[in-house]
What does this fold into?
Amino acid sequence: MQRPNTVVWDVGNVIVRWDPRTLYSKIFPDPVERDRFLAHVCTMAWHGPTDCGVTFADNCAALSAEHPEHAAAIDAWRARWPEMFSGPIPETEAAIEALQARGVRQYALTNMSHETCEDTFAMSPAFDRLDGRIVSGLEGVMKPGPEIFELVCARYGFAPSEALFVDDGAGNIAAARALGFHVHHFTDPAALRPALEAFGLL
It folds into this structure.
């Protein structure tokens, strides 16, 4: 298998840190109450449709109708979205800068709402170093479905075997590997640069 010459980056918890608890710890100081809310009201399964094009307004309104006692907290998911972030990941920013200096092509491939992507991309100068971005909410397809992986390859002109895909989600990593990508499961920022060096990218 050939060495990669392109890197495809996930965004959340790879380039910038994202965790709903960062916001909801302010709304629910009691951790038990907070965890109950995130496990049974604003769940990742509920959030998913916004990553595929459903508006936050529609998604929040439907959930608020089911849980009117939590309407304000549900609306905070949309109104206070930036407060779910705790900044960029320095190791990834440094890697993106180093790869750019080496002339390596780099792209973002993210499950993210079309309503929040520009605010998110403004959180780090690393995003301006990338050569392109694929946002699920703009495209109507999501990871781990094969269509979004095929889309990034077709749009930017490379084969899966030419690319290293970096993601924190095990399911996304498995899907990319099955399609022929090189992969790095991002679990420890300190392991990123050694992985890029092992693939011959740095």
Notes: Strands lie at 6-9, 16-18, 85-88, 105-110, 132-135, 163-167, 182-185. The first strand starts at residue 6 and ends at 9. The radius of gyration is 18 Å.
